[in-house]
Amino acid sequence: MIKLSLTTGIFFFVVFSVLVSSQTQSGQWSAKAGDSGYNLDTNTGERAINIEIPFKNPYDVKPKVMLSVTQIDADKGFNGRYNVEVFSVSKDGFTVKIRTWADSKVYSISGYWLSYTEK
How many domains does the chain contain in total? Predict the structure, then answer.
């Protein structure tokens, strides 16, 4: 009887875990001087670059996406101003927008992304 109860409990735990588990994907993003359209290291005022990130496996529903910044190379002679955000999220991918302004000069910036949906 104890064996049956234990087996039943384990079965329901496994089924519950599968039902509430998330679909996730992750990867890296980066942009640097020399990339096509990169302008964060020149001129002044607001400048931006967009990076299109496709999902390896498209989702069934639009996922949530989180970003991190892990590296930035900026000119020490100017304030280091930058903003990184996600927009245009779809089932197939999303866009990372990297922005700087005023006299800041960003030579490279990179990080990680994580996308997920709950089943």
Answer: 1
